Amino acid sequence: MITLPHTGLQVPHDRLNVHTFAELEMPNGVAFTAKLTLDGRTAGVIANQGNGGGTYYQPEDDSPFGHREIAAFADACRTQTGRTPNEENLLDAFIEEHATAQEIAAAQRHGTTLVRHVHPLINDPHHGLAGETFVCQTQQLHKTIRYATQSERETLTRLLDTRTPCDGGIWQIWLDDAWTPLATTS
User: Fold this and answer.
1) Pair (53, 99) in one structural domain
2) What is the gyration radius of the CA atoms in the chain, in angstroms?
């Protein structure tokens, strides 16, 4: 199993990727479409209409990766707590992986890095994801500032805690190729 770096989702292979992504702010959410590729070839589209409905997959007419294959892929995946994600959670994880990678690339181009506040889900009766985490907030920081010592990380965490709407959870910083905890928040 391969663990995806931004969601922690474990997948059986890394041959599926989001290639392009476009989003549009709507009155009730964010609409988006993304091309899902298999081995670099378009397999289908991941979409959400931004009206409160779910994320769905629409395979290309001649795609070897149809609805049965995406369902089987989801069944083979595991979340951070060992659960099997449903198809919508899997598709949303692919979108989150792509969007976060794009944010990191943009931050690196500007000489910054990302920090994010990761919060546990207490109860999600619709998806059964209690114990999983979600990203509450992401911010950019200048890379010229060092966060090497525990004291520096605790100071940064206290500053960031004044800027987050979430209670609890942890702040993580993107260093090189992984999310690293700064410190536990109150």
Assistant:
1) yes
2) 18
Look up residue 53 and give its two tokens: 């409905």
Under a CB-based contact definition with an 8 Å cutoff, are residues 126 and 182 in contact? no
**According to the model, what pLDDT value does residue 186 have?**
47
- Tell me which residue of 115, 122, 107 sits closest to 158, measured CA to CA: 115
Burial 60-91 (b: 16+ CB within 10 A, else e): eeebebeeebbeebbeebbbeeebebbbbbbb
Measure Cα distances from 61 to 23, 43, 45, 64, 70 in Å: 23, 9, 11, 9, 15
Q: Which of 53, 57, 68, 15 is nearest to 35 (CA)?
A: 57
Q: Which residues on adjacent β-strands are paired with residue 45?
A: 35, 58
Picking from 80, 103, 126, the residue at the C-terminal end of a domain is 103
Q: Number of structural domains, the chain?
A: 2
* Spatial contact of 58 and 44, defined as CB atoms under 8 Å apart: yes
pTM for the structure as a whole? 0.80
150 and 76 part of one domain: no
- For 38-68, how does the pLDDT look when each residue is reduced to its tens digit (9 = 90+)? 999 999 999 999 888 889 999 999 999 999 9
- Candidates 141, 165, 167; CA nearest to 155 is 141
Report residue 178 as tokens: 């992984």
